[in-house]
Amino acid sequence: MRILLTNDDGIFAEGLQVLAREIEKIAETSVVAPDHEQSATGHAITMHRPIRAERVKYLHSPELPTYAVNGTPADCVKLAVEAILPHRPDLVISGINRGANLGTDVLYSGTVSAAIEGVILGIPAIAVSLTEYKNPRFEYAAEFIARLAKVVTAHGAGSDTLLNVNVPGCDRERMQGVAVTKLGVRQYKNAFEKRTDPRGRTYYWLAGQLVDVEHEKDTDVAAINACKISITPIQHDLTNYALIDNLREWSFEL
After folding, report:
1. Is there a contact between 28 and 1 (Cβ–Cβ < 8 Å)?
2. At a CB cut-off of 8 Å and minimum separation 6, what does 83 contact?
3. Could you count the other beta carbons within 10 Å of the beta carbon of residue 133?
């Protein structure tokens, strides 16, 4: 089994290195990730400047093929599969992200977008995030993803869907199991903070306070609140199929 690892927190992020150590035990592993943090870049790709990939080393595994790319998470996967790696990977894993990627936030996530790029290229993919941001401990999440990777390949998961995994930050002894979920809803209030620079000019800083509006029990948000690992299957096809036939009845005048 060949597995490509990537992330949006940067090539030397702790979550990625902990995951690499665990995945190396079960598969032929390569790492291609951004050379600096690229959080919340969504599915942006680089078109108007050169993309460079530099070979770097992890101290814990200096022989591991590891490349730092001056591009986005989606760039990293596309470049790895189409230019860098000698063999096509069997699975793409993006993470372990520091902080949750739940509900509608997946639309902004560079972590999830890197996994989506794998799916676009016809490769099954997993995006994984640890919901604890301040004092993350990635070891349990890495162990779980290594086990999940073997399950995914054993079941022949389709290449049109990625699994978005969120692991709660609670101690492993408090984990309440695994839930297969749908995307929940996350909303923020006071999203922009208005400030004034030293020259008296106004600028805005994106911040915001999370508002808990989730009431359904089968969502990823609810699972994390119950201290369960959430696994959500996600497709990149955004077509509203239920509305297609209705739209065809509309009158569109040219």
Report:
1. yes
2. 53
3. 12
The C-alpha atoms of residue 84 and residue 209 are separated, in whole angstroms, by: 41
- Spatial neighbors of 67 by CB under 8 A, at least 6 apart, are 11, 30, 31, 32, 33, 53, 54, 55, 56, 80, 84
Give me the tens of pLDDT residue by residue for the chain, a chain 254 residues long: 999 999 999 999 999 999 999 999 999 999 999 999 999 999 999 999 999 999 999 999 999 999 999 999 999 999 999 999 999 999 999 999 999 999 989 999 999 999 999 999 999 999 999 999 889 999 999 999 999 999 998 887 667 889 999 999 988 889 999 999 999 988 877 778 899 999 999 999 987 777 766 678 899 999 999 999 999 999 999 999 999 999 998 988 77
3 state SS of 43: coil
48 alpha-carbon distance from chain centroid: 24
CB-based contact 161:232 (threshold 8 Å): no
